[in-house]
Amino acid sequence: MNSTAPSELNNDAFLLTQLEQGNGHAFNLLFEKYWEVAYSSAYKRLKDADLAKDIVQDIFTHIWINRSTLHFNNLPAYLNRAVRNKVIKALAKQKATHPFFDVLENHSEKAFCADNLLLWKEFIKDYENLLSTLPPQRQAIFRLRFHDDLPTKDIAYLLGLSRKTVQNQLGKAIQKLRVSLMHLWTIFALLLLSHLR
Predict the structure, then answer these.
(1) Using one digit for the tens of pLDDT, what is the confidence trace for 59-76?
(2) Worst-scoring range by mean pLDDT, 14-28, 96-110, 136-150?
(3) Confidence band for 164, pLDDT divided at 50, 70 and 90
(4) Cβ-contact 60, 29 below 8 angstroms
(5) Max CA separation in the chain (angstroms)
(6) d(Cα 107, Cα 195) in Å, to the nearest integer?
(7) Buried-most residue among 91, 103, 177, 197 (CB within 10 A)?
(8) Which domains does the chain have, with CATH numbers?
């Protein structure tokens, strides 16, 4: 690309074509041009600088490794979708603690008898297993609403979704989990009552 005109170096279509052919310089130019935008988008949603950097690095690594097969024409749009999907997955994997766990987590294991510890472990395991059955986006929304106590408008802003979409996803999650969660709440109630005796 030594003889390439400066205007072509700013042309995404040209750079993407060069990238598909394995041109590392073209990749570096695209990386420098869009890294900050992608990072800002990830950080805005996560408020975690290190995680945002890791996400963007993973995306660009994926682009380079799969450069000959991606065939996209709009890099900003691709990056926006990729960041959004990565953020949703990252949020879904976070082990945020629901406020109702605080009563038990603030006490040492010695405060519980062996039977209660087994119930507690079963409760946590079943609860996480239930959440893992939800699609990544729905799981992230559920955790943000019921673990982090965020209102739906904040969740919508964080994930780049409409508030109606967030509300719909919450409704579907709750509908699916309602019966199973009732079983878990029974276990939790037994734990709580036993601890308060």
Answers:
(1) 999 999 898 888 888 899
(2) 96-110
(3) very high
(4) no
(5) 81
(6) 10
(7) 91
(8) 6-93 (1.10.1740.10), 99-196 (1.10.10.10)
Residue 94, SS3 per DSSP: coil
Residue whose structure tokens are 């009563």: 103
Cβ count near 64 (within 10 Å): 16
Task: Calculate the alpha carbon distances from 27 to 52, 65, 109, 131, 189 in Å.
Answer: 20, 11, 53, 38, 56
**Cα distance between residue 82 and residue 52, in whole Å:** 12
For residues 132 and 95, give the distance between their C-alpha atoms in angstroms, rounded to a whole number: 11
Which of 105, 181, 90 is CA-nearest to residue 144? 90
Higher pLDDT, 7 or 163: 163
* pLDDT tens digits, 128-137: 888 888 898 8
Write the CB contacts of 44 (distance below 8 Å, at least 6 apart in sequence): none
Are 52 and 46 in contact by the 8 Å Cβ rule? The answer is: yes
